[in-house]
């Protein structure tokens, strides 16, 4: 019964969040300077031409009526028609989702495989001269460099010099898996730099917090080796904040992919939304942002469940969290 109530509460809060996001994004796209008619017809279009285009797409109706029609369609699974390509938005997003999904999975995998060991290493070597300062410096540098700066630098270097990897191209995984991975390595590496840095810093802080626990002191007193202590006493007890962070990062990277896809010319959801913003393709922007919000909500629910498995004291069934 408690689990059922928890699921009901999460469903209601998720629906309220998505409704709020829908209002915000619908309002925001219509407040952007330069409307759809001005973007499509250009600066020399007559008032009659603009009025005709607005009538054709229903943009002459009151905003609340446009929102109501769009929300009703979305509730029925219809994201509308792209005002530029005249193709169903849902099908367009679905065709591009594998690219963004693969890019995000590669970046999250790199964050976990590099960030967690780096964080553990800097924590256990936090004493003066142990190398912890170098790890903190690298983490701070990775957090500070924007993705578009790093991505532009990588594109320039690999375009200027023949280093074995191409940029600006993409091959479907189903067509040639090896070529596909070769085109995704650099975008995934750029996207993962920030995540690796944040994961390393969070892991370091979590491990430092566990290192002062009495059971770690007792393990040291029993003469257990440092890496045995790390594997059996530290990693699981420090995992909760790291898992929470990785889940949040996964949702964040979906948004960060927007910039990286655009820089590396990948046909993913992010580059699709960037093009839609420039063309004032309202239906695509609204659907893309709503999809990103839904993914973020789902990831948070999964994090809550996983944290409960790792630490039953914080679990849903324990009733410690709402």
Description:
- The protein is mainly alpha-helical.
- It is built from 13 helices and no strands.
- The chain has helices spanning 2-31, 36-41, 47-56, 63-75, 89-124, 132-144, 147-160, 177-211, 214-221, 226-234, 239-264, 269-279, 282-310.
- α7 (147-160) packs across α8 (177-211) and α12 packs antiparallel against α13.
- The longest helix has 36 residues, at 89-124.
- The relative contact order is 0.14.
- The mean pLDDT is 81.
Which structural class matches the secondary elements?
mainly alpha
Using only CA atoms, what is the Rg? 24 Å
Overall geometric form: globular
Instruction: Work out the helix count.
Output: 13
DSSP strand tally: 0
Q: Topology as H/E string?
A: HHHHHHHHHHHHH
Helix content: over 70%
């Amino acid at each position: 019964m408690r689990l059922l109530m928890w699921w009901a509460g999460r469903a209601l809060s998720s629906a309220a969040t998505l409704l709020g996001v829908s209002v915000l994004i619908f309002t925001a796209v219509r407040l952007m300077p330069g409307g759809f008619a001005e973007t499509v017809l250009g600066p020399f279009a007559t008032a009659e031409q603009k009025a005709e285009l607005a009538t054709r797409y229903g943009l002459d109706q009151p905003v609340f009526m446009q929102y109501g029609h769009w929300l009703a369609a979305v509730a029925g699974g219809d994201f509308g028609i792209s005002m530029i390509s005249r193709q169903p938005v849902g099908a367009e997003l679905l065709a591009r989702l594998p690219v963004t999904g693969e890019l995000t999975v590669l970046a999250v995998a790199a964050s976990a495989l590099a960030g967690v060991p780096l964080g553990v290493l800097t924590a256990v070597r936090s004493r003066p001269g142990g190398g912890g300062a170098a790890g903190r410096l690298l983490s701070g540098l990775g957090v500070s460099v924007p993705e578009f700066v790093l991505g532009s630098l990588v594109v320039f270097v690999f375009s200027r010099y023949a280093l074995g990897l191409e940029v600006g191209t993409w091959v479907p995984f189903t067509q040639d898996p090896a070529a596909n991975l070769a085109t995704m390595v650099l975008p995934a590496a750029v996207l993962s730099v920030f995540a690796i840095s944040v994961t390393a810093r969070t892991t370091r802080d979590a491990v430092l917090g566990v290192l002062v626990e009495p059971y770690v002191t007792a393990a040291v007193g029993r003469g257990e080796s440092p890496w045995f202590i790390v594997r059996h006493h530290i990693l699981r007890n420090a995992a909760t904040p790291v898992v929470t962070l990785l889940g949040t990062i996964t949702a964040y990277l979906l948004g960060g992919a927007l910039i990286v896809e655009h820089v590396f010319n990948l046909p993913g959801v992010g580059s699709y939304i960037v093009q839609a913003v420039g063309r004032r393709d309202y239906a695509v922007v609204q659907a893309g942002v709503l999809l990103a919000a839904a993914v973020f909500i789902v990831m948070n629910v999964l994090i809550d469940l996983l944290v409960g498995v790792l630490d039953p004291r914080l679990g849903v069934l324990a009733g410690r969290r709402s």
